[in-house]
Amino acid sequence: MSSKLKDRIEEYISRCDHKFLSRVPIIIIINGRNFAKVTQLLDKPYCPKFAECMLSTTLRLCSDIEGTLFAYQHNDEIVVVTRNDQSNETNPWYDNRSQKICSVTSAIATLHFNKHASSLQLNIQGEPVFTAQAFEVGTVAEAINTLVYKQQQNFHTSIQAACLYNLLTKYDKNNIKDMTAGLGIDEKIDLLSQECGIHFNDYPTLFRRGGAIYKAPQIVDGLMKNKWHVNGELPIFTKEQSFLSNIFRMGSDIFRCDNV
Questions:
Q1: Which of 119, 180, 137 is nearest to 26 (CA)?
Q2: What's the pTM value of the predicted model, to 2 decimals?
Q3: Cβ atoms within 10 Å, residue 172
Q4: Which residues in the chain come in under a pLDDT of 50?
């Protein structure tokens, strides 16, 4: 094998083998590809079995992705916040290589979701596939802000979905589009109540605010251990700001603060 050829090909590969910065939070966003079609036969706007399947997939990702501190799940999206500096000896997951991180993450999500969906006999169409993208943020505060943004995004999406699928029992999509155009959040909630007799807050918290997985102290066989905790009753992050900050403070950020 020509060493010149080998060096040239390896250089092509290395130029695209981006590595994330060290000692900053890394955020991985996992999305279902074309899930509007995949889930078209499921109950709308909220399907408990689908939500269970997504949370199970989130838990599997938390267990497999090294350095995970917190994961937020809403609709067909999972947001994982991970750190690689919990000690001086910590080796970053896949050496912080973005392509490795994204490809392995999407593969784990796809395999687990399909297996769990089959066990629940979830009525999905085609073969579900997940995509992944990852990026770093400069501070823990920005990681928290990302989660705040994602919860706000979910809030808007869930209200829009509730209006659409409930109003479809009375109107066609074009009429619904005209009815909801330019309406604010409160106005859409009022429209849902007036037209369909449905109160948005009666939907499960998991649908309205999303779910999360993070480690919390639990008693196991008489001993206190940090175990993954699945939370489907999240607070509104902007109203209870200490919720996220306390979770992140109990993780590797203690190490960061001690060594700045």
A1: 137
A2: 0.90
A3: 9
A4: 252-260
